[in-house]
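Figure caption, in words: inputs first, then the predicted bound structure.
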Amino acid sequence: MADAPKTAAIKKIKAAGPMKDLMGAYFKELDEAARQRSARVAWCSSVGPAELLRALGFRVYFPENHGALLGTSRLATEYIPEANAIGYAPTICSYLTSDVGAWLKKTTPLTKAFGMEGVPRPDLLAFNTNQCRDVQDWFAFYSREYQVPIVGIETPRSVNEVDAAHLAGLTAQYRALVPKLEEVAGQKLDLDRLREVVASSYRCTLLWKQVLRAGTHRPAPITFFDGTIHMGPAVVLRGDPRAEEYYQLLAAELEERIKGGVAAVEGERLRFYWDGMPVWGKLREHAETFAAAQGCVVASTYCNSWIFEALAEKDPFVGMARAYTELFIVRAEAYKERYLETMARDYGIHGIIYHESMTCPNNSNNRYGLPGRMAKKLGIPYVVIQGDLNDLRCYSDEQTRTQLEALFEQLHDRA
Amino acid sequence: MPDDPAGAIAALAAALYCGVDLGASATKVALVDGAGSLRGWSVRPSGVDYRAAALAGQEEALRQAGAAPGLLGRTVATGYGRDNVSFADDRRTEIQCHGVGVYHVLHRALTVIDIGGQDNKVIRLDAAGRRLHFRMNRKCAAGTGAFLEEIALRLDLPLGSLDALAAGATEAVQLSSFCTVFAKTEILAHLRRGVPVGAIVRGAFASVVARVVEMDPLPGEVVLTGGVIAHNPTVGVLLQERLGRAVVVPPHPQLAGAIGAALIARHGLASSAQEGLDA
Ligand code: SF4
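Bound structure (iron/sulfur cluster present):
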């Protein structure tokens, strides 16, 4: 540690400008659609049936993206108590509680960031329980408040292998959504249009994967912290060709960095894997802490969760059913261990950070002994940091800093 | 530094290396000489001015060592307030310093438990003093010195009187709550029922032990460090009973982190090849 620089500048990715423009355009369109009724607005869970909604002409809004904005702007902790006060416990998803809290206060960071008056009024809410039950309960709140229909896919959880029985049931569920979606959309589903959207979403996935795989290079041209910001279009605009264009641009910039030997973290010496969600309100601090120790978080479960390689233009319903069930978060521990093992090897990982989000058990993979088993398998050290995606009351700067620095010391002293 | 080389060598040999462990409740300072022997130390409350506490501790330790400030070599700071020790040449975590401090004395594979004022740590070292693994308690005061401070306050007892009360008690109440606030409510109920204070304090000590045992399987030889064990040896006795095996308490358990920091200072600022820093 002694010879590591104590402060480290975070290197800006040039594509950040175009990304901000793209996100701005996305929110503007949503806002216009909601205010001028020029298109129907659907709210969708982040790994929900977005392609189907887009194919039916909905403008798609993602409350989890809003939750992350509340987190990064550090407003979440202020609004969570509002939701607690009406009966949503402080121990449940802090995306839910901060989002509902902000809604109750009639405020949103979208006003400052994108000039929107408020969140875009929904015509319909669509969830998928593949990630958690909270999305259903969260959307149910808005369904009651706005008096609009709520539909969903009820995906089983802790799945070992995604098999034919899963796919048959889930494909039927996707198909069963269509009549209700058509009714709200005021148009019939055009299968060719769905294929087009799915194909675009698939190309976006491949490009996003290419971006993340750039992290396998030494030195890595991109960090996990960059990834959490640049994943925006993959979440909210998948299925829209503009997302593909954006990732072409980003992938090219990273390719340039690789060619020029440009490291995201100057003097990269240590490579880390981050499991679990980011602590949104602490992204910058965390990025700086790692950079100061010449440590780069080169890969993560979180950013990789928006890779949907099973999407299939030819068979869009089965492809969606498979893609949104094969996700890490849906799977059993045995799968997760295999996945982490592969990632650690592919990315040349020296240490793993498991973030235990106190309000999201679904994204906290330390609770059933997995870190200990992985340490035995991989022979690399790890830390578990207790924190949260949005509720900073669950997070201690001091404890996190000490744990991370202790891990750096351990690895530097071994090096 | 004298001009002549012999004088320089003599000055180096006489130099003292300083470790400052600025904890949440106490600031510990240790001075070691070139051979790694403890020459002076100080333990004082951290208060609210951390820098002042560190400076005063250093002065006190120098006085105790009978050494002039000019003899001071490098300083390494550790602990919660390590960044506030502006005169330190380097900073290390408590996790590393406690490991180094204990290994220096015992020189074998160990599981070190540091029960501090604000948090607990478990550090596993191999036979060469390399750190194998570490854990910190959850973001909660349960099981730490802060918990015992709260209990003393609740029982209206001076902190220094807890150990004698716990040691003298034949029974211990069960405090089942994870939460310090709820534990205090449980204590109220025990007081209402007329349970002797000693049994309550012994129960609180047992609760500290229970929180520690939950952190790690604690394999091999267990060593206890930190302020809690320094002032409350009965915690060590209870841990021994719970584990069913001997628990080692090194000399100056509260100084283990500061001594570790001083030993790191003695070895220079470059990373040590191994945590143990051979004496
Ligand atoms: S997965 Fe976790 S963070 Fe995401 S919506 Fe569900 S509970 Fe909230």
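Chain A has one domain: 16-414.
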